[in-house]
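Task: sequence design from structure.
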């Protein structure tokens, strides 16, 4: 029987190319299995810092090998069209199906009450009508058939807040967690990840949220041992000093893949001395960041001046961002004027503002679910240091020329 059920189409990166953090995995696995974490653990970390790779690979392995857990990994980022609630029900159902004989599976699919979820449409109506086995029953059965503690790792859990079925599934998981805590047996643990602390914090701080009181923890960024590992990959030429590598990693916002790419490009041109290797590394980081900022500026141009002004306002105000407040509209007008858009008369009605913010969401620049969050934390600094007067200048020149 599989010990780690994966419900993801992303192919795991080759383990040989990965940097491993076994001590971190062991300590986090032990924490998660301890009594203090029985309400759940919410793990946060900035974008692209290795959360998924760590949770799906090393943490899952530590839970399985060191604690004999049955690990279910569900990636809510994977299929953006799939309702996160459906993804959760389906993952638990598929795990159970893996233990059932085909006869039982068939009986479920042809309509026996309480049938499970694979190959069956999961909807709110069916759940409300009791036609879908509850997550409590399914997870209880899963602990029974496996004889192991079930640990659910839910990647990008904040997506659950975006649909009704997602919220129902979260409440279902909470009910299952509570029921399994009360019944004798191997039990259940839950870990959720999210790329933005604010997105997850909301889920554990709000009274009405199912995981109130669950623990939060941020995944430590890769440390010096990771830099040593990268330096160890230098086969030809001189390598940059650890200090310069560390500074470069910091400048890249601890994005693992970006840093590895930059190091690879420096390694490809063998340097004659350490000084040259360091210069090349700094240059490559500059180039990398310049390109990322260019891509960001292109997105802003696609969003238009008004949406850019609102995003800038969000960067300035942080959690105090109030897009419907008249004081905010005054600031938006000032920002538009800084961009040279003096003739613009924006629609500041409720619908007008919502439409502008929706544009930012479509472009994945802003995330909204009760609170607004700038999707990529790097964008906050980039917006604040940006020369607004030139951003749309080319567009305006093109309009004049036409
Ligand atoms: N331990 C590692 N060793 C080597 N490369 C890694 C490691 N962890 C992550 N990476 C690289 O960084 C990329 C991003 O990692 P990952 O998807 O795990 O980050 P994330 O924090 O989950 O990102 P997101 O915020 O988009 O969900 C991976 O595709 C991989 O190329
Ligand atoms: Mg991830």
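Answer:
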């Amino acid at each position: 029987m599989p010990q780690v059920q994966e419900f993801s189409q992303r192919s795991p990166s080759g383990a040989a190319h990965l940097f491993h953090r076994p001590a971190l995995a062991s300590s986090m696995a032990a924490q998660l299995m301890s009594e203090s974490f029985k309400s759940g653990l919410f793990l946060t970390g900035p974008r692209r810092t290795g959360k998924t790779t760590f949770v799906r690979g090393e943490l899952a392995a530590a839970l399985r090998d060191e604690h004999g857990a049955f690990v279910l990994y569900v990636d809510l980022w994977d299929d953006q069209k799939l309702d996160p609630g459906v993804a959760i029900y389906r993952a638990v159902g598929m795990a159970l199906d893996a233990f059932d004989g085909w006869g039982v599976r068939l009986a479920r699919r042809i309509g026996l009450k309480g049938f499970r979820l694979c190959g069956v449409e999961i909807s709110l109506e069916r759940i409300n009508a009791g036609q879908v086995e509850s997550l409590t029953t399914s997870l209880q059965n899963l602990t029974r058939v496996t004889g192991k503690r079930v640990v659910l790792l839910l990647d990008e859990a904040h997506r659950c807040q975006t649909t009704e079925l997602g919220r129902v599934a979260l409440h279902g998981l909470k009910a299952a967690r509570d029921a399994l805590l009360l019944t004798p047996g191997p039990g259940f643990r839950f870990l959720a990840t999210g790329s933005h602390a604010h997105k997850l914090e909301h889920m554990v701080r709000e009274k009405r949220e199912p995981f109130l009181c669950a623990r939060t923890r941020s995944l430590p960024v890769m440390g010096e041992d990771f830099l040593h590992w990268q330096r160890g990959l230098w086969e030809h030429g001189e390598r940059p000093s650890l200090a310069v590598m560390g500074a470069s990693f910091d400048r890249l916002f601890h994005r693992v893949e970006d840093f590895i790419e930059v190091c690879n490009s420096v390694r490809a041109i063998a340097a004659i001395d350490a000084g040259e290797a360091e210069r090349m590394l700094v240059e490559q980081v500059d180039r990398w960041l310049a390109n990322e900022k260019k891509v960001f500026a292109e997105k802003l141009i696609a969003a238009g001046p008004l949406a850019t002004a609102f995003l800038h306002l969000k960067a300035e105000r942080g959690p105090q961002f109030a897009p419907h407040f008249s004081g905010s509209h005054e600031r938006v007008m000032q920002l538009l004027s800084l961009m040279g858009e003096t003739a613009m008369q924006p629609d500041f009605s409720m619908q007008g503002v919502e439409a502008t913010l929706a544009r930012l969401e479509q472009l994945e620049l802003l995330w909204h679910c009760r609170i607004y969050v700038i999707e990529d934390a790097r964008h906050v600094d980039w917006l604040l240091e940006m020369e607004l007067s030139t951003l749309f200048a080319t567009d305006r020149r093109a309009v004049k020329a036409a």
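The two ends are 67 Å apart (CA to CA).
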